[in-house]
C-alpha cells in the first residue's frame, strides 16, 4: 500500500515538473519581461542592469531551477499589473473559489446521487422521466446562459437573492468565509447552483446507468432472495458498486470546477481565482498566469491522488491488483 | 399435510409485445422435508422459472397466471411484497449458479452474513457474528472467524459456493432452491458441493429442489426427479426409475444423449424428440474431399506441406510459460505462476487428441501457446513440421499457421456481435485471399454454412439471432474458412445443453471424417473426451501427468491423479 502511494506521488512530481516547465516558458514566449517591467524612459544601461539583477542572462536551466525552487516555496514574483506578490494575490482570492466549488460539489453530489438512485430504481415513473428530461436541459445549455437566467429569475424578477458579488464575508485569519452570515449564503447560492448544474447532470446520469446495470447482477438478485430490505439492497449493495466510476468522474470534475470556474465567476462577478485569471490574461500578466497554471495542475494532481486512494478503500479487488 | 411445498397446476406467462410466452404450463410438483427433488431439463425448458415463481422473484414481465403454490400448507400466491420478504431467506433459501457473481464483491463475507442473519432472526450484531461463524464451519470452511473478514474474491470458486450456501442457510429455512449450483464448478469441487447439499438436507431435514440440466448431478444427489420440457413436466418419479426406466420419449432421448463414460460409441445419440431435426445430422450433405474447395490446398499451404507426409500435425516440446502474479523489481520478490511446465506431446495427422484437466490446470494455455496467442518462455511448437516460433511474417510460418484454427468455449463472446454472419465467416477467406473475387467468397461462405447445418439464409443475419448451439456452428464455419488441417477445440460444448452438445460433437466428428482434420480437443468432461478422442493427455498444475490411448486410460489409468479424476466421474450406473 505504501509503495503504491509512493509510486503515485512520484508520478505526481513528474506531472508537476512538466507543468512548471510549460509555465516557465510562458515568461519567455509572452514578450520580454524587462520591457514589461520598466517604463518607456528607461535607458539601455538600466535595462542591462535589470536583466543582470533578475538573472535573465544566466543559462536557461539555471533560470528554470530558480523558478522551480521559488515555486516550491510558493513564490511567483510580482504581478506586472498590481505590483504585489502573486502568492498573496492568490491567497486572497482562493477562499472565494474554494467555497464556491465546495458548495456546488455538495449540491451536485447529494442531488445527483439521490436522483440517480431514484431514477435508476423507478425507471418508468413520471418523476424519473421529468428528472431525466430536465437534466438534459442542464447539460445542453451553456453555463453563462443558465447563470444569466437564474439572475434574471431570482435577482431581477423575484428579488430574493443578490445578483452578483460576494457579500457578508467574515475573516478567519487570512481565510475570508461567507459561510457564517445569511448574506454570505444568499450570495453564494446562485453561482454555486450554476456551477453545479452540469456536474449534477453528469453524476445523475452516471449513477443511473450504473444502477441499472448493477440491479441486473446476480448478487442483487441473491440479496433479494435472502429477503433483505429494499433500502439495504439499493443503498448498501447497489450504490456501493456504482461508486467507482462515479468517483472517477467526480475527481476529474472537481479539479475542473476549481480550475475553470472562470465563466461562472465572471457572470456573477465572484471575486475568486477564475476572475483573477481572466483579468491577468487581459493584461498579459505573466507571473499570475504562470502561478495559476501551476496551481491548477497541483489541484488536479492532488484530487486525482485522493481519487485513487478512494478507489482502493471502496473496491478491495483493486487493493490486490494495485500493489 | 406432510408436503413441504406443493405446486399445483402452475402457469407462468411472459407477456411480451410479440405475444405471450408460456414459460410453465400446468406444472405440479411436491417436495417433502428431507428430500431432494431434481428438476431437470434443457435451457429454456422453464426450470428456473419455477424456482423464481416460488419465491416471487420472476423477472418482469413474468407472472404467475394460474395455479397454486402452497408452502407448509400456506398459499404463497397473493402475498404482498412485505410478506414475501419474510418468507424469502427466512423460510425459503436460494442458491444460484455462479458463485463468482452471486456475492457482492465490495462487502466482506462477514458483513453479508451478519446482515442476512440480523434481518432474518432479528438478533444483535454480536450474536449474528457468532452465528455467522458457526454457519461457515457447518458448510466446511475452516478458520471461519478469520475468513469472515475476507472479501469474496479471496475465495476459490468452490469456497465461494460454500459461502453462498451459508448465506442461503442463514435464516434457517425449511426449503432450499438451488438453481444449477454446481454448473460453474470443477468436477472435483462439484462432487464436494453436492455432498454438502445432500448432507445438509438430511441433517437439517430440509426440502431441496435442485434445478439442473446435468443428468449426472441428478444421478448423484436427487431422491426424486421431475423432467421438464418446454414448460411442461413430462415425467416425475424416483431417480432410479427415471434414469433406469424412463417412460416418456423425451426423457429417454435426453438420457441417451448424455455421453457415456463407460463405453465408446461411434456417434452421440442426439435428442431427436420433436425438434430433433433442427440442424440434425442428416441435414449435412456429405462432401467429397477430393473435389471440394475445402479439400484443395491453397498455394500457401502447398509450399508448407509438400514435404510433410509422415510429420506430426502438432509437435510440442518442453513448452513452458509462467505468468507474473505480482511484479517486483527484485526477481526473488516476484511471484510467478508456472502455468505450463515442460509440456511435450505430438499429435499425428488425422488424430483426435484430448487434453483433460480441471480449471487452472493449464490446458487452455497450451492451446493458446500452440495457436500463437501467447508466446512461450521456452520450448518449441511445430505445426506440420515447421517451427512456428519465429518471425510471424515469415511466409513459411504464416503458411504453417494457416493450417490451424481454433474454436472457443463461449459461443456468445467469441463472435463479433456487430458483424453479419457472412462477414464473420468470410473474414479468414478475405484475410488469406483464398478466393478469386467477392462473388466467389460469398459462394464459399454459403457453402460452409450449409455444411455446418445452418443453411445459407443465416449469412445475412447477426449472431444474437442465433442460439448457443447455432453460434457454435458459426464458429466452426469460421474456423473451416481458412481450410485448416488442424482444429483446436477449447471446451467447445461446455456452455451448451446435452442435446446440442451431441449435435455439435457429431458435427465435429463428421467434419473430421470428411476432411481428415486433426483435432486437439480440450475439455474437463471425461465422458466427452472418451467419445471424441483417440489419445488423451491428463494435465494438472501445468504439467502432463499421463498420456495414453483413450480406452487404456479409462480402463487402466496409471497415474494417481488420472485415477482420482476418473473416480470423480458422475456415477451413471443407475442407467440400465
Write the topology of this structure.
The complex is a heterodimer of chains A (about 325) and B (about 575).
Chain A: H1 2-29, H2 33-37, H3 44-54, H4 60-72, H5 86-121, H6 126-140, H7 143-157, E1 170-172, E2 175-177, H8 182-215, H9 218-225, H10 230-259, H11 262-267, H12 273-282, H13 286-314, H14 316-322
Antiparallel strand pairs in A: 1-2
Helix pairs in contact in A: 1-4, 1-13, 5-6, 5-8, 5-10, 6-8, 7-8, 8-10, 9-10, 10-13, 12-13, 13-14
Chain B: E1 3-16, E2 19-32, E3 36-40, H1 47-54, E4 62-71, E5 74-75, H2 81-87, E6 92-95, H3 109-121, H4 125-138, H5 144-147, H6 157-169, E7 175-179, H7 187-204, E8 207-212, H8 215-221, E9 224-229, E10 232-238, H9 239-244, H10 249-257, H11 299-305, E11 314-326, E12 335-347, E13 352-356, H12 363-371, E14 378-383, E15 386-387, H13 395-402, E16 404-407, H14 421-431, H15 438-451, H16 468-480, E17 486-490, H17 498-515, E18 518-523, H18 526-532, E19 535-540, E20 543-549, H19 550-555, H20 560-567
Parallel strand pairs in B: 3-8, 3-9, 6-7, 7-8, 13-18, 13-19, 16-17, 17-18
Antiparallel strand pairs in B: 1-2, 1-4, 4-5, 9-10, 11-12, 11-14, 14-15, 19-20
Helix pairs in contact in B: 3-4, 4-6, 6-7, 11-13, 14-15, 14-16, 15-16, 16-17
Throw out a few tags for this protein.
heterodimer; A: 323 residues; mainly alpha; MetI-like fold; 2 domains; two-stranded antiparallel sheet; 14 helices; B: 576 residues; alpha/beta; Rossmann fold; 6-stranded mixed beta sheet; 20 helices; 20 strands
Amino acid at each position: 500500500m505504501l509503495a503504491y502511494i509512493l509510486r503515485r506521488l512520484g508520478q505526481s512530481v513528474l506531472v508537476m515538473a512538466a507543468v512548471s516547465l510549460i509555465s516557465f516558458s510562458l515568461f519567455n514566449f509572452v514578450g520580454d519581461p524587462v520591457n514589461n517591467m520598466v517604463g518607456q524612459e528607461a535607458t539601455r544601461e538600466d535595462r542591462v542592469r535589470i536583466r543582470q539583477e533578475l538573472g535573465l542572462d544566466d543559462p536557461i536551466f539555471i533560470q528554470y531551477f530558480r523558478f522551480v525552487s521559488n515555486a516550491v516555496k510558493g513564490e511567483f514574483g510580482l504581478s506586472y499589473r498590481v505590483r504585489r506578490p502573486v502568492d498573496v494575490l492568490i491567497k486572497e482570492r482562493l477562499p472565494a473559489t474554494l467555497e464556491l466549488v465546495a458548495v456546488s460539489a455538495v449540491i451536485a453530489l447529494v442531488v445527483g446521487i439521490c436522483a440517480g438512485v431514484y431514477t435508476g430504481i423507478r425507471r418508468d415513473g413520471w418523476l424519473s422521466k421529468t428528472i431525466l428530461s430536465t437534466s438534459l436541459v442542464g447539460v445542453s445549455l451553456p453555463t453563462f446562459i443558465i447563470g444569466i437566467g437564474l439572475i434574471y429569475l431570482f435577482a431581477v424578477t423575484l428579488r430574493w437573492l443578490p445578483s452578483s458579488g460576494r457579500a457578508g464575508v467574515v475573516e478567519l485569519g487570512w481565510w475570508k468565509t461567507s459561510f457564517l452570515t445569511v448574506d454570505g449564503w444568499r450570495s453564494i447560492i446562485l453561482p454555486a447552483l450554476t456551477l453545479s448544474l452540469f456536474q449534477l447532470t453528469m453524476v445523475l446520469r452516471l449513477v443511473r446507468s450504473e444502477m441499472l446495470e448493477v440491479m441486473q447482477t446476480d448478487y442483487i438478485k441473491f440479496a433479494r432472495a435472502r429477503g433483505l430490505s429494499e433500502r439495504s439492497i439499493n443503498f448498501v449493495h447497489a450504490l456501493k458498486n456504482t461508486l467507482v466510476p462515479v468517483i472517477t468522474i467526480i475527481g476529474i470534475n472537481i479539479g475542473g470546477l476549481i480550475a475553470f470556474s472562470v465563466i461562472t465567476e465572471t457572470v456573477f462577478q465572484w471575486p475568486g481565482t477564475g476572475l483573477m485569471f481572466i483579468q491577468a490574461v487581459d493584461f498579459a500578466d505573466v507571473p499570475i498566469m504562470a502561478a495559476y497554471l501551476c496551481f491548477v495542475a497541483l489541484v488536479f494532481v492532488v484530487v486525482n491522488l485522493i481519487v485513487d486512494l478512494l478507489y482502493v478503500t471502496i473496491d478491495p479487488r483493486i487493493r490486490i491488483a494495485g500493489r | 399435510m406432510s408436503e413441504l411445498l406443493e405446486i399445483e397446476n402452475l402457469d407462468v406467462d411472459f407477456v411480451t409485445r410479440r405475444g405471450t410466452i408460456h414459460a410453465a404450463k400446468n406444472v405440479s410438483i411436491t417436495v417433502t422435508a428431507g428430500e431432494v427433488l431434481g428438476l431437470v431439463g434443457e435451457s429454456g425448458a422453464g426450470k428456473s422459472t419455477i424456482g423464481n415463481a416460488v419465491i416471487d422473484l420472476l423477472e418482469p414481465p413474468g407472472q404467475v397466471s394460474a395455479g397454486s403454490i402452497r408452502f407448509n400448507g400456506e398459499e404463497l400466491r397473493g402475498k404482498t411484497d412485505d410478506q414475501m420478504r419474510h418468507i424469502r431467506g427466512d423460510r425459503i433459501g436460494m442458491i444460484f449458479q455462479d458463485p463468482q457473481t452471486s456475492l457482492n464483491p465490495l462487502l466482506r463475507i462477514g458483513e453479508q452474513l451478519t446482515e442476512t442473519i440480523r434481518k432474518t432472526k432479528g438478533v444483535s450484531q454480536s450474536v449474528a457474528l457468532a452465528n455467522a461463524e458457526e454457519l461457515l464451519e457447518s458448510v466446511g470452511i475452516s478458520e471461519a472467524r478469520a475468513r469472515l473478514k475476507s472479501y469474496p474474491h479471496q475465495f476459490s470458486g468452490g469456497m465461494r459456493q460454500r459461502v453462498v450456501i451459508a448465506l442461503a442457510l442463514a435464516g434457517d429455512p425449511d426449503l432450499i432452491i438451488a438453481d444449477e449450483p454446481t454448473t460453474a464448478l470443477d468436477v472435483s469441487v462439484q462432487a464436494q458441493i453436492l455432498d454438502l447439499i445432500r448432507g445438509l438436507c438430511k441433517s437439517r431435514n430440509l426440502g431441496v429442489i435442485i434445478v439442473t440440466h446435468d443428468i449426472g448431478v441428478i444421478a448423484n444427489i436427487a431422491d426424486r426427479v421431475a423432467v421438464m420440457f418446454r414448460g411442461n413436466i413430462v415425467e416425475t418419479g424416483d431417480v432410479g426409475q427415471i434414469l433406469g426406466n424412463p417412460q416418456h420419449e423425451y426423457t429417454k432421448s435426453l438420457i441417451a444423449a448424455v455421453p457415456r463414460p463407460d463405453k465408446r460409441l461411434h456417434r452421440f445419440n442426439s435428442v431427436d424428440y420433436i425438434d430433433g431435426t433442427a440442424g440434425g445430422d442428416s441435414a449435412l450433405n456429405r462432401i467429397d474431399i477430393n473435389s471440394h474447395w475445402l479439400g484443395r490446398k491453397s498455394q500457401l499451404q502447398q509450399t508448407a506441406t509438400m514435404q510433410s507426409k509422415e510429420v506430426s500435425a502438432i509437435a510440442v516440446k518442453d513448452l513452458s510459460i509462467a505468468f507474473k502474479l505480482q511484479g517486483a523489481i527484485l526477481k526473488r520478490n516476484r511471484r510467478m505462476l508456472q502455468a505450463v511446465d515442460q509440456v511435450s506431446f505430438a499429435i499425428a495427422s488425422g488424430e483426435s487428441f484430448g487434453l483433460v484437466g480441471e480449471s487452472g490446470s493449464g490446458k487452455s494455455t497450451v492451446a493458446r501457446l500452440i495457436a500463437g496467442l501467447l508466446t512461450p518462455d521456452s520450448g518449441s511448437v511445430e505445426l506440420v513440421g515447421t517451427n512456428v516460433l519465429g518471425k510471424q511474417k515469415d511466409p513459411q510460418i504464416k503458411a504453417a499457421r494457416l493450417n490451424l484454427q481454433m474454436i472457443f468455449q463461449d459461443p456468445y463472446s467469441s463472435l463479433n456481435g456487430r458483424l453479419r454472419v457472412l462477414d464473420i465467416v468470410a473474414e479468414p477467406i478475405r484475410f488469406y485471399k483464398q478466393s478469386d473475387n467477392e462473388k466467389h467468397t460469398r459462394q464459399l461462405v454459403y457453402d460452409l454454412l450449409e455444411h455446418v447445418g445452418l443453411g445459407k439464409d443465416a449469412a445475412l443475419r447477426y449472431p444474437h439471432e442465433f442460439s448457443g448451439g447455432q453460434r457454435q456452428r458459426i464458429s466452426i464455419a469460421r474456423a473451416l474458412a481458412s481450410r485448416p488441417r488442424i482444429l483446436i477445440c477449447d471446451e467447445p460444448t461446455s456452455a451448451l445443453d446435452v442435446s446440442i452438445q451431441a449435435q455439435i460433437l457429431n458435427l465435429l466428428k463428421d467434419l473430421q471424417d470428411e476432411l481428415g482434420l486433426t483435432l486437439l480437443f480440450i475439455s474437463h468432461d471425461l465422458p466427452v473426451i472418451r467419445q471424441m478422442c483417440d489419445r488423451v493427455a491428463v494435465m494438472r498444475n501445468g504439467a502432463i501427468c499421463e498420456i495414453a490411448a483413450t480406452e487404456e486410460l479409462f480402463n487402466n489409468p496409471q497415474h494417481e491423479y488420472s485415477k482420482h479424476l476418473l473416480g470423480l466421474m458422475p456415477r451413471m450406473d443407475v442407467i440400465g
